[in-house]
Amino acid sequence: MQKTAILFLSACIYANSAFGQLLKYDNEQELMGAAVSSPYSAGQIVKRLVDKCGAYNDSLRTSGDRALHSWEAHHQAYLEEGLRVKAQLEAKLSTPTDRSAFKNMLEKQLPEAIQKQYEALAVVIDSAPSQAGKVRMCEGYVQAIADGKFDLKVNDPTLSAYFDKRIRARSDKK
């Protein structure tokens, strides 16, 4: 079971992005793999975009921070559940090789993938021929964040439903 989730986590690291997740999961182990990386990755990308755009002017900094805080509040339960899934997977790793591979994915491969995904979005800003063009691109990104285009429910409703089911099941036990 854990090997399937670990393998799928590896695939998710390279395939997910803020606008388009892997939308087909064949089993719960695949969902678990995606749950470990997806909301965290999207959050990191959103934060980096907001930081980049906030450097252009105070208005973008303010609206970007507002959009980021809204995104984080909206996704807090998913981010926390992703940590629970990560701990669940880690607890099932039985060999040093599996633990090392999992650690490598989380500490090396995932940050590299996040950086590449961020760069793919940032290059659009950087390619604008003028400062005003860069600001317009940033306004578009900040508005997309505010409009929910980076939300898990929009980009990956299957994973979002999986999170909701896990969260609901835990709250029903209380």
Structure characterization notes:
The protein is an all-alpha fold. 83% of the residues lie in helices and 0% in strands. The chain is built from seven helices and no strands.
**What is the 3D shape?**
globular
User: What number of structural domains do the residues give?
Assistant: 1
Most strands sheet: none
Strand content: under 5%
- CA distance, first residue to last residue: 28 Å
Number of strands: 0
> Would you identify the regions where 5 or more consecutive residues have pLDDT less than 50?
none
Q: N-to-C SSE series?
A: HHHHHHH
Overall pLDDT, averaged?
87
What is the share of helical residues?
over 70%
Q: Roughly how many Å is the radius of gyration?
A: 17 Å
Outline of the structure:
This protein is mainly α. The chain is 83% helix and 0% strand.
Please outline the helices and strands.
Elements: H1 2-15, H2 28-54, H3 58-92, H4 96-127, H5 131-146, H6 152-155, H7 157-173
List keywords for this structure.
single chain; mainly alpha; 174 residues
